[in-house]
């Protein structure tokens, strides 16, 4: 089987990328989705808050996904469900398997990676204790409650204040459970400010920062957990232990991009995001292979996933059009985009001034909470951007726009650096 474009993953990123590619002239598109329906994680996100940027209205996760699914079907985009991509070669040959078709291969002229992310498991946390029933990742609990109609427990402690943990605190409370506390290792929440207010404050659920679980009681079923305060290095402080009876512990301790396929193909990965390193066209280090969505870096809003994925689909379409026209990849000079002071990472990681559009969106996250500061961008020692921000937090993705006409004079710069600068008194 041969296709112009194969997209791995039929969630919000894969759907937006497929639609953009189709609208930009790619006819032979195939989406491979391992689940039994398109939409990805959105299908279990029955709360509202989606679509405010994309559709200027508030939708639930399934409603947001449905709009993209319906458009993809109207455009005649082909997809295979219950199909797992097993491996990809550097010449873009995909090996996949399904119960219906068995194992098969697809040759693709271009690929878009949009596999999403997975939750960090308890094993990565090294929490002492047995392995009793009642310990769930927040996403698993969300699926149990929203899809399966099953309540994981009635007295709940949540470790981690990422968005899914905050949302599940509210969800469990609405279903009648007693959420006793949300504990967060860091001195700040990992979630959006609006979720802290709407999911915790509005339900009188306490948030304890600089706190972690140091022990889990119970052999057959969770009976309680011991919390302790931590120092600036995240180490438990002796004498601060507090035992809290509960029957359920939910873990919301971070998301990891699903990059087994990316590693297999030899795509270079960012050591911070754990996702692919991409240029201004969302292209990875392997020619003709693009990445978008949570497989690239974990987003806080699905609207930004769709926006980013649409760019990947459009650039993949341009790549295919150039191949059809016999135009080989042009030799271009690239400038590294560097995460400077106070910035954890940037996407993209490099930019070609000749190949970029008139405006380039650079997304990033700060390392810690910052108040009364500036987002600055430098080309070597020349400051191009200086934007005042009253507050920034790691839980909320930031962005800065780079103008092609401003970068034209710095095509030979050693680097473009995004950094945080303190406001002068």
List keywords for this structure.
single chain; 425 residues; alpha/beta; FAD/NAD(P)-binding domain; Immunoglobulin-like; seven-stranded mixed beta sheet; five-stranded parallel beta sheet; 8 helices; 25 strands; 21% helix
Description:
- The mean pLDDT is 94.
- The protein has 3 domains: 2-118 and 256-329, FAD/NAD(P)-binding domain; 121-253, FAD/NAD(P)-binding domain, CATH 3.50.50; 351-422, Immunoglobulin-like (Sandwich).
- With 425 residues, the protein is α/β, with parallel strands linked by helices.
- It contains 8 helices and 25 strands.
- The longest helix is centred in the last third of the chain and has 23 residues, at 302-324.
- Strands 1, 2, 3, 4, 5, 6 and 17 form a 7-stranded mixed sheet that branches. A 5-stranded parallel sheet has the order 8-15-9-10-11. The chain has a 5-stranded mixed sheet with strand order 20-18-25-22-23, with no helix packed on it.
- Helix 4 links the parallel strand 9 (155-159) and strand 10 (178-183).
Instruction: Quote the CATH topology of the largest domain.
Output: FAD/NAD(P)-binding domain
Low-confidence stretches at least 5 residues in length (pLDDT < 50)?
Answer: none
Extended strand count? 25
- What multimeric state do the chains show? single chain
**Strand-residue proportion:** 25-35%
CATH architecture of the largest domain: 3-Layer(bba) Sandwich
* Spatial separation of the terminal alpha carbons: 64 Å
Highest-level CATH class of the largest domain:
Alpha Beta
Note the overall shape.
globular
What radius of gyration results from the CA coordinates? 23 Å
Q: Could you tell me the mean pLDDT?
A: 94
Q: Treating each run of at least 4 consecutive H or I residues as one helix, how many helices? A: 8
Main sheet specs: 7 strands, mixed
Q: Number of domains in the coordinates?
A: 3
* Class from secondary-structure proportions: alpha/beta
Please bin the fraction of helical residues: 10-25%
CATH homolog superfamily of the largest domain: FAD/NAD(P)-binding domain
């Amino acid at each position: 089987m041969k296709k112009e474009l194969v997209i791995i993953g039929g969630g919000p990123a894969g759907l937006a990328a497929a639609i953009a590619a189709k609208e930009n002239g790619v006819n032979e598109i195939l989406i491979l989705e391992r689940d039994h329906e398109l939409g990805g994680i959105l299908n279990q996100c029955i709360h509202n808050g989606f679509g405010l940027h994309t559709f200027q209205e508030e939708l639930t996760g399934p409603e947001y996904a449905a709009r993209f699914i319906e458009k993809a079907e109207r455009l005649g985009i082909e997809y295979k469900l219950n199909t797992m991509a097993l491996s990809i070669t550097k010449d873009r040959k995909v090996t996949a398997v399904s119960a219906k078709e068995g194992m098969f291969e697809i040759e693709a002229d271009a690929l878009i990676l949009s596999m999403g992310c997975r939750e960090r498991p308890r094993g990565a946390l090294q929490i002492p204790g047995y392995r009793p029933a009642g310990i769930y990742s927040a996403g698993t609990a969300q699926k149990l409650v929203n899809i399966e109609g099953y309540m994981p427990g009635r007295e709940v402690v949540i470790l981690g204040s990422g968005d899914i943990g905050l949302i599940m605190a509210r969800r469990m409370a609405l279903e009648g459970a007693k959420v006793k506390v949300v504990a967060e290792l860091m001195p700040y929440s990992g979630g959006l400010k609006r979720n802290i207010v709407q999911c915790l404050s509005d339900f009188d659920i306490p948030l304890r920062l600089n706190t972690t679980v140091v022990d889990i009681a119970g052999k057959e079923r969770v009976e309680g957990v011991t919390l302790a305060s931590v120092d600036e290095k995240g180490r438990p402080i002796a004498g601060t232990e507090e035992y809290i009876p509960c029957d359920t512990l939910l873990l919301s301790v971070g998301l990891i991009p699903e990059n087994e396929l990316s590693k297999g193909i030899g795509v270079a990965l960012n050591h911070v995001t754990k996702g692919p390193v991409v240029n201004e066209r969302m292209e990875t280090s392997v020619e003709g292979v693009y990445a978008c969505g949570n497989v690239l870096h974990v987003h806080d809003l699905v609207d930004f996933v769709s926006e980013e994925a649409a760019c990947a689909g459009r650039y993949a379409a341009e790549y295919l059009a150039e191949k059809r026209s016999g135009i080989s990849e042009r030799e271009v000079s690239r400038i590294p985009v560097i995460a400077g002071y106070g910035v954890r990472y940037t996407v993209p990681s490099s930019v070609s001034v000749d190949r970029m559009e008139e405006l380039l969106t650079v997304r990033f996250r700060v390392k810690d909470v910052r108040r009364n500061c500036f987002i600055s961008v430098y080309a070597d020692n020349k400051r191009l951007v200086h934007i005042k921000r009253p507050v920034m937090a790691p839980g909320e993705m930031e962005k800065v726009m780079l103008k092609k006409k401003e970068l034209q004079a710095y095509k030979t710069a050693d680097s473009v650096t995004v950094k945080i600068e303190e406001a002068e008194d």
